[in-house]
Design a protein that fits this description.
alpha+beta; 21% strand
């Protein structure tokens, strides 16, 4: 019986190693393989279970195959482009997908915003009825256009002045996508500050996958140009896990780094049907910053009726910034509201 179990474990370990190697090597070329990265934390768990079982059964071949697969599965995490750390917070950014089918009143979300006091609030799938309650908080002096369908329901509230805004595209990459990155120039910061609010297509089909990838490539190209003379922040529902090759490619080409959580099992998007029995999901809500900026903290917030959790990121100036950082760490973020426009 034990011999049979060892043989099965060896086959399972070899199959696991082959699968993770194929995804790691080919996900950038094949849609279905890239979809596997959305559940990559569960792939890692599978590798851990297989490795432990093989060790307990004293099967050398199964242990070797499972361990190789487990090590390969960890590659997307160890190779991630993560933002530099700083001890102080100078700017708090919150991104949240409100979920267009959200039937809950905005009260819990409003309480969350009051408590966190973000300087920049980036929203996706913004319901029409949520704009006025958020505006009524009287926390934000500035907001992007109230014609939210112009930006496919992407909405930004800011305590920093919004001096310009609009969707961007690049004909050299492709124009066959309708969800465009939104570029906003912000004032009131020590350097020019550019915010990209993004919500590309969800890759449920091959065409949507290609559209998402064009969206990310476009954002990366224009962000890299901005990063030459400006601080850049990219926030939103990327519809791309940090384990996807397209995520790291967008960071690399954009001169960006992920705020990161340091925990591969953190989830920001989950199934409402299975909650609260099982928190199955993926991390697709991200904040990334240019090399001139650093991150002091990244965490998720509470539920508010959406199938996404909000992501809170505290940003400060990096060591390479042309402006010296404050000598004393600030205890928290949250600029005072500016005059509205």
């Amino acid at each position: 019986m034990s011999t049979t179990i060892r043989s099965l474990l060896a086959i399972a370990g070899l199959g696991f190693a082959t699968f993770v190697a194929a995804v790691t090597a080919l996900a950038a070329k094949f849609w279905l393989l890239d979809l596997a990265t959305f559940a990559w934390q569960y792939v890692v768990v599978t590798g851990i279970v297989l490795t432990l079982a093989s060790v307990l059964m004293k099967s050398r071949w199964a242990t070797a195959a499972s361990l190789i697969g487990l090590l390969i599965s960890m590659y997307p995490y160890v190779s991630a482009r993560t933002a530099a750390k700083t001890e102080w917070c100078e700017l708090r950014v919150v991104t949240a997908n409100l979920f267009i089918e959200n039937t809950s009143p905005p009260d819990r979300f409003l309480d969350f915003v009051r408590r966190e006091q973000p300087d920049i609030l980036v929203l996706q799938e913004t319901p029409d009825t949520w704009q006025d309650p958020i505006r009524g908080l009287a926390m934000f002096g500035y907001e992007s256009t109230r014609e939210i369908m112009a930006y496919d329901r992407v909405k930004v509230f800011s305590k920093l002045p919004i001096t310009s805004e609009g969707p961007v595209s690049d004909t050299t990459i492709g124009t066959d996508f309708h969800k465009r990155p939104i570029r906003l120039q912000l004032g009131g910061w020590s350097r020019p500050l550019v915010l990209y609010a993004i919500h590309p297509e969800t890759p449920r089909s091959m065409d949507q996958w290609r559209e998402r990838n064009i969206h990310l490539a476009t954002m990366a190209k224009v962000a890299s140009q901005d990063a030459i003379s400006s601080d850049v922040i990219v926030a939103g529902d990327w519809n791309t896990p940090s384990t996807s090759p397209f995520f790291n490619e967008a960071l690399a080409k954009g001169g960006l780094a992920d705020a990161g959580s340091g925990n591969p099992f953190v989830t920001s998007r989950f199934s409402l049907k299975l909650y609260p029995f099982l928190l199955l999901g993926s991390t697709i809500d991200h904040v990334a910053v240019s090399g001139s900026l650093a991150v002091s903290d990244r965490r998720t917030g509470p539920m508010y009726g959406s199938n996404h959790l909000p992501v809170i990121v505290d940003v400060g100036r990096g060591k390479t910034s042309a402006v010296a950082s404050p000598p004393v760490p600030r205890p928290g973020c949250g600029l005072q509201p500016g005059a509205g426009v």
